[in-house]
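Tutorial handout. Part one gives the primary structure; part two gives the three-dimensional structure as tokens.
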Amino acid sequence: MFELLYTSVAPQCLSEDELMDILLKARIKNQQLGITGMMIYHDREIMQILEGDESAVKALYQTICEDQRHTRVNIFYEGHIEERAFPEWSMAFKSLDEAAVKKITLGYEGLNKKLSPMNMIKKSNNRGKKVLISLCDNF
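Part two.
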């Protein structure tokens, strides 16, 4: 089992309809590929974790890199895992509102306010994965 956590920036803000279209297509494709995971979205920033067979996850990531809805795509973390963190979700999703951002950034109040929540999460691989799992647990 393999996981890959990446971040990207949408070239423009995505509407709720655009996000739902992306999710519906991703859920169908991921289910066919045996991939599970979660995506979070806030103010054009995307963070997504993908889990599954290594070759399938890497192939999907390559497709994402070529998708024009993603810019500045970067792998945050990748590696082998014992078990899935999101076994029931072909693609869980959370759009972060200000309350969620405050919860995630609790304890980081002294940092530069211009830093985005995603950049704050990126400071620690463990914190990023914990945030994704925490968001999944709070559905």
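Part three, for discussion. The mean pLDDT is 76. The two ends are 25 Å apart (CA to CA).
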